[in-house]
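Pipeline run #58 for the internal structure catalog. This entry was flagged by the ingest filter as a single-chain record with no existing model, so it goes straight to prediction. Upstream metadata was stripped on purpose; only the residue string is passed forward. Reviewer on rotation: M.T. Logging verbosity set to normal.
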Amino acid sequence: MTQPRRTLFGTDGIRGTANTAPMTAETALKVAMAAAVEFRRGDHRHSVVIGKDTRLSGYMLEPALAAGFTSMGMDVTMVGPLPTPAIAMLTRSMRADLGVMISASHNPYEDNGIKLFGPDGFKLSDEVEAAIEARIAGGLDGDLVPASALGRAQRLEDARGRYTEFVKATFPKGLRLDGLKIVVDCAHGAAYKVAPQVLWELGAEVVPVGVTPDGRNINKGCGATDTAAMQSAVVAHGAHLGIALDGDADRLIMADETGTKIDGDQLMALVAESWHRDGRLAGGGLVATVMSNLGLERHMNRLGLELARTKVGDRYVVEHMRSHGFNLGGEQSGHIVMSDYATTGDGLAAALQVLAVVQQRGQTMSQVASVFAPVPQLLKNVRFGGGDPLTADSVRSAIRAAERELGGGGRVVIRKSGTEPLIRVMAEGDDAALVEQVVDAICRAVSDAGTRATAAE
């Protein structure tokens, strides 16, 4: 089946360097106008919820989006810095027609992005994103509403309180975090107020890290993609565990009491095992991507459960969960989706599920979080200059050779980056030396093919 053509939208909305095409105020204005027309269904008063993280460029994009929506007759509610899952939740609870999150997630502050949610709180499908792009290309002047029908814009002052109570309600009733000292690294991002507040209100002693955003320090040396500060703080403060969120708080990485890092695969395994034991795990397993460790798959199989794999991107995980009846899924990078509670990854809610297991078992984080033994896995990125190296016979031959060498006890995953001229080469198997050998061989083939393609141009 032919995929709808999209040039603005990628695997997670629109993303790019702020104030450089396509991430400009003009693009934001047009996207808002087109999305408003696409979701202007029925004769009710239409509305949209707009949230953001703490990037400086949010001050540019937020009013541009608001102007686009109001020009098409849609009322705008701005909630300020809040996690991405909070925007998805508010979109549903406020019966809005659309939700928008202004964030580039784990990227540095120079980047920003626009994520759109439908009235059901789920990210838009490829088909709807393509339809929005088609409206932009076709021109929007004919869709402008008369002056009497313009939308209004307002700020919702209690948005953080609404999300705080929502997240606390995902924690088991009657259970508390009393007696736990927790380091929480908010990456100077969207959860810098709400995450420490939720943990404190549930009874924990909280050591906050990354909670002084200045518009430029989001994800810088902190957060889920750079966990060293969190890990060090756990040891320095004698904490029981650490929590690291990314810039928009939709992903989670943790650390045990020794400061040892715990990735998304281990966290998903822990929650899946707990839910399975309690009879809460739907679908007969969990959904992960092709990047999740083979050790996770083997562990799930030992429990008589399935590990369903999708291509990389939490939206594809969610799509598979919805279509096949799963209620747990995610990515090794820390996106953990629990559809009983949320429509997208929620780092804080996922952390609370892990903390519930710690408290219920009365064990340390290191005791509960080493769920399976990871299989040696290696990922390398190869930058290329021209053409598509993956179509080269030499690269295909190298991939086939790697698969033969690893046999049935390993995997090779090759994929092209959606944002950079990079080929990502990943392999895993029980023999670490062999894994490194086959990855290096494929990388050399990709590099050589890219060099030949550049020379031919």
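catalog note: The chain has a mean pLDDT of 94.
catalog note: The chain has four domains: 14-156, 177-262, 263-374, 377-456.
status: ready for reviewer M.T.
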